[in-house]
């Protein structure tokens, strides 16, 4: 996936190794938002290895506005035994407060759905926020249903 622009002026692209400090900072902001900072022990080194090491276990899309990091979405693949196909699991999507209500989260979700389709995923699922609950997912989705089965 190459960088894509959005109507609201965000640029979304896959994270690169040089983005690790910005991703780490936004994870810290997410932990504060969720009131879980005491559980956030990930270091930049942990993230660099998980995202760009010999065997990456996750991927990140990062959104920028005017060259400044605004949001991240951390995702990885799972597998559906019933569909016999991989799925895409969205672990976290976080938009910094000053960039909320500008269409960034929706653009990130669309970009992730595009990745899922390109990779032949049968499902696109997500984890709901702890503290924010349904407010974190203003798309009319219950916290128990998958985003969509893609077939």
Give a structural overview.
- This protein is an alpha+beta fold.
- It has a single domain (4-149), classed as Gcn5-related N-acetyltransferase (GNAT) (Aminopeptidase, 3-Layer(aba) Sandwich).
- It contains 3 helices and 7 strands; from the N terminus they run ββααβββαββ.
- It has helices spanning 20-33, 44-52, 104-118, and strands at 4-5, 10-14, 59-65, 68-80, 85-95, 123-126, 148-149.
- A 7-stranded mixed beta sheet has the order 1-2-3-4-5-6-7, sandwiched between helices.
- The longest helix has 15 residues, at 104-118.
The CATH superfamily title: Gcn5-related N-acetyltransferase (GNAT)
Give the overall shape. Answer: globular
Biggest sheet record: 7 strands, mixed
Sequence of strands across the biggest β-sheet: 1-2-3-4-5-6-7
Estimated structural class: alpha+beta
Number of domains: 1
Helix and strand succession?
EEHHEEEHEE
Helix proportion of residues, in percent?
25-40%
CATH architecture: 3-Layer(aba) Sandwich
| Spatial gap, N to C terminus | 21 Å
Condensed summary:
The protein is of the alpha+beta class and 151 residues long. It has one domain (4-149): 3-Layer(aba) Sandwich (Aminopeptidase), CATH 3.40.630.30. The protein contains three helices and seven strands; from the N terminus they run ββααβββαββ.
């Amino acid at each position: 996936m190459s960088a894509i622009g959005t109507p609201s002026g965000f640029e979304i692209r896959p994270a690169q190794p040089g983005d690790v400090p910005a991703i780490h900072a936004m994870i810290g902001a997410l932990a504060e938002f969720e009131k879980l900072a005491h559980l956030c022990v990930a270091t930049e080194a942990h993230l660099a290895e998980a995202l760009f090491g010999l065997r990456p276990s996750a991927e990140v899309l990062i959104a920028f506005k005017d060259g400044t990091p605004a949001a991240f979405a951390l995702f990885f693949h799972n597998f559906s035994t019933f569909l016999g196909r991989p799925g895409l699991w969205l672990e976290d999507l976080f938009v910094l407060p000053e960039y909320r209500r500008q269409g960034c989260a929706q653009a990130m979700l669309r970009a992730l759905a595009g990745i899922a389709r390109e990779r032949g995923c049968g499902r696109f699922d997500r984890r709901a926020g702890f503290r924010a609950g349904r407010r974190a997912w203003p798309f009319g989705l219950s916290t128990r249903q998958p985003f969509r089965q893609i077939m």
